Amino acid sequence: MVNVITQLAEAYDILRTTFVTVPSGVLQVIHTGLQHLQVANADAASIDAFLEADHRRGFEVGDKCFSRFSMVQTPLSSTLYCVLTMHHALYDGWTIAMLLRDLYDLLHDERPLVPRPSFRRVVDYIQAQDQRDTETFWRGYLHGLNVHLIALGTVQHGVASPGSAATRRPTSIALQLNEIQEASKRVGLTVAEFTRLVWALTLRKYTRHNDVIFGQVLSNRNLPVSDVARILGPLISTVPCRVTFDESSNSLRGAIASIQAQRGALVGHSYASLVDMKRWSGVVDNVFDTVLAFQQLPAIWDFGPGSSTYDIAAPHAVEHTLEVTIWPNETHLTVLARHDPTRLTDEHARQILEEMRHTSGQVYALSHDLDDDSSMLWDVSDTQRGWIDASSFGPQTILPYELVHHAFEARATSHPTTPAIEFEGTCLTYGQLNDRANTLAAQLYCMGVGVGHRVGVVMERCLEFPTALLAALKVGASMMPLDAAFPVSRLLYMLADANAFVVVTTDKHRHLVESMTLGIPFVCISSSSTDAASSQPIKASRCNATRTDEAYVVYTSGSSGTPKGVPVTHAAAVNVSHFRSVETGFVPGHRVMQFMAIGFDGFQWDLWKCLSNGATLVLRSHEVLHELKSIHAFTCTPTALFLLGHPSEFPSLRVVSVAGETCPLVLKDLWAPYVRFMNLYGPSECAIMTHYAELQPGDPITIGRPLENVHSYILDSNQRPVPVGVVGELCLGGVCVSPGYINLPHQTNERFIPDPFVQGGVMFRTGDLGRLLLDGNFELLGREDSQVKLKGYRIELDEVAGAMMQHPDVVSAAVIVKDKSHLVGYFTPASVAIEKLQQVVAAHLPVYMVPAVWVGLDVMPQNSNGKTDKNALQAMEVEVQVEALETESERRMAKIWAQVLGVNVNDIGRRTSFFSI
Questions:
Q1: What is the value of pTM for the model shown?
Q2: Which residues belong to any copy of the Carrier domain (predicted)?
Q3: Domain coordinates in residue numbering, the chain
Q4: CA distance linking residue 628 with residue 615, whole number of Å
């Protein structure tokens, strides 16, 4: 065997090649003798173990040789393995095939090898080409490209198989060759071109864009070079393949024509490097992250009758997120996929190949008539759709009560002495609160208040506040909780917009209500006026409301600057009040702190979860830290939770829930060891809570699964389901959905649309970006309206902030665009080292998404709803430190770059990053 290997090395330069570094660059050196040829004997526990170790060994510049042979013997096999290890700079698939053929011939035939032409012919051809023509070609080919890469979530959400990407078994499927040949002929493509079309359509499902680009592997054995098919060496190249789809025509004809137009166009330009292509096209990061290779190797594998069968193991280094190789044979196409396990899970790789199989079948069906509607090509496979449906629908359960206050009334009857509401040391039992509400309800009834009316409750935190809200419900009206601390103009707008029928307030705020001259009646109440049971208690028969009537109205911030009124039905309120009360700590015997602002929907969550399940609601006062010493559960924003300090200071706490904004990993890891830590999600338009997740230390941040009777979908811009892991808009259906915005028909029609998956249902488009993970949980990734375009790149600001929160010490993060020129990243606490934070973000995001300026804050500014106040961040003066230029050469270079990039030359310093400007 050693003699045969020696003959190969004598015949072929590539087996005697190494590379050396000189001041001008890297040079190839071909040794004339065989002194550097390595043929080593090795013992290994298994051949797989040897291949793994051999791959890790690799090659380095300066090695004596860039190929080596090893003879490997394993204890469990009598087989002697010959392992050829070569640097990829020396070979391609054709080269390996020809080497193995020659090796076989030398082992079985004494005749000398037929000399092969030198690789120098290819080098001479490339050097003779006009670089300017190639630059012009690739500039035109990549013009206007917006790169969209596969992003299916971090590997921590899935389970990666052990072993390196090079030695792990690839994922595989088989496609029927006869069907593909038929379809290819019908649409005017070769089989290889047909697979490119199928792969482009598959990627379109995962990128959700009609401009698709991936890497295609070219053998370049069609170059106009004499006897090129017999040359040993790395002729292979990977170049972009761009396929565009015209969705407006709902036809595949345009995409097929674009593939046909590329025939032969790459000859003469395929040798260009990706580095040059990116420079010519202005693409900063990767042009593509998937590669498709259709293997058409020379027909040299038939070794004749009586020959032995050889199993060939070929470890393959994976350089992209996903690399797909197609091997044709007589009956089918074998599709093999290797993936980078740090960027893609095994299950995702399998699903993508299954989606490719499904897409191939879809194209086959359409190939009979290309004028048929091709919108079906967006549809995911039945297998994946089943996976999605299993996670998208919360358990379907019958609601236990017709109206939201019925559970409270049942508690008041069965446990009248249980404490219900507490404020500043004064407590009302369930029975007392019910009696007070009955007294006020009787008064409202006499004023004509009933179903279809809205009752504005203008107060501050006090015991009268829940009393008034209950009274409104008892007469069938809808309650409108309004914080008396709101600006008068805001109160006036909301009361007028909602067409409030009556206002309930306290003596303390009588003057405020009178000054607004509302033109509607108002009622002033006090503890004394409702202290005793009414002599005319309200009767249940006087409340004619049904579960489809309004329970309450809350106002949420609007993009136009004016608040939007959101009515919530009794059915929605009952659903969120009844289910998951144990998980969130709303159980009898628990004292629950009411944290949220009383004029927002968070107050409704606290109030009705408590009163429906027998807990005691403690209204927050100025002594909140003292009161928390005896509290068992509460819900607040992550920003507010951070301000409370360390969980060990509150020994009575059992459950802490966060909602309203993204929960930082460091905050969850701080609190989860001490309490049951719940991450909640739900927009005002869907009754406060639609998803819940109990997070343990070490868990990733997700919003979990949908609540009972809630439907949760991840959809694209045309309301089509996207594959598992793909980012889309989170849309919600089910009993939770509001009837729509008050007096805003255009916005209602835009956000509240027919549920495409439930006949007669209504679906709310949240505007939140999210994805479904492999474990069935949902993950949020920011807002659709947080997307900006900076220097030609689309950037999700919330995605950047999410990457910042991967730093173990960052508690809160926010990102804004400053002066339309650069990103500014704000974070707390200010003690976090900027250099380390920058490294963390750079490890998760492409360079153009890394903020140019970093600002550490002691406290993140909050708005009145407890969320990060980005207007306050925008108003902050931020100085960018620019190290002064020192030499004339630096000043000339800065001037040139300022002109090229269109920036102020004063913004360029000695250490300014190209990407930051």
A1: 0.81
A2: 884-917
A3: 2-90, 133-155+169-300+315-379, 404-570, 791-875, 881-917
A4: 15
